[in-house]
Amino acid sequence: MTTPRERLEAIGNQIPPLIALIVLWMLLWGEFSWLNLLVAFVVGIVVTVAFYLVPVQLSGRVHPLHTVVFFVRLILDIVRASIDVSWLAVKPRLITSNAILAIRLHTRSDLILTWTAVATSIVPGSIVVDIDRESSILYLHVLNMHSAADIESFRRQVLDTERRIVRAFGSREDVERMRGVLPANRLDARRADQNKQGQS
């Protein structure tokens, strides 16, 4: 059962998409009029209600230094991976050995999960093919995996990316979870909550 505060937060989370839809409608019509504004408001309400999305909770925290570190490292990873993939394309006697990897993240945040998936996918050589939101697992198709060492190295790269994102944009709870203080995923957290309720 939701509390009045949670209901207000849910309504508040729908306001930015509603405003964005109104602005988009006005831009598509190319002119401002009160009738267009009214129609845009009605259409926006219908769309946000009919196609309701679970709101993503923003952490409200941005660490400038770690943000710079994240983006600089992301650019370096893209450049390095682009060179590697280019070499694979022209390499003589290429023996391909690709893999589908399941990598469990530490985060429970949908925002961090999405950021990590996007940051991993835009680096050439890997792409997210599925996400298990409940368990915080990314399933990725990865090029050039020839050994267990290659797989472990890539897994560490993804977790390092997650850690940099958490340091840059994550909440205090996300940071604590990365340190191992809190449960690593939703299922573990749910079990921990159930255990606490059972003990109380």
Automatic annotation (TrEMBL):
Protein's cellular compartments: Cell membrane
Annotated GO molecular function terms are: monoatomic cation transmembrane transporter activity
For this UniProt record, the keywords arranged alphabetically read as follows: Cell membrane, Membrane, Transmembrane, Transmembrane helix
**Pfam families (UniProt xref):** MNHE (PF01899)
The record ties this protein, via InterPro entries, to: Cation_antiport_E
Membrane topology, as annotated: Multi-pass membrane protein
Q: Name one GO cellular component term.
A: plasma membrane
Q: Which residue ranges does UniProt annotate as crossing the membrane?
A: 12-28, 34-54
The family this protein is said to belong to: Belongs to the CPA3 antiporters (TC 2.A.63) subunit E family.
In its UniProt entry, what is this protein called? Na+/H+ antiporter subunit E
